[in-house]
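Q: Here's a chain of 62 amino acids. Please give me its 3D structure as tokens.
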Amino acid sequence: MPVVTIQMYAGRTKQQKAELAKAITEAVVRIALTTPEQTWVVFQDVPRDSWAIGGVLASDRP
């Protein structure tokens, strides 16, 4: 059972996540030779103040 975890800044719409889940699922099914029912996609929305890049909080970056 493939599990794909997507971590990204919070703020994407339900529709955007649905489209992304569909595209990822289709790719995993095609390449990993599994089924859609066995493919899980998990979205983890991360606030910008909980993510740092190069030692600087993303919320403090321009």
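Q: Can you summarize the key feature?
A: The helical segments are 14-32.
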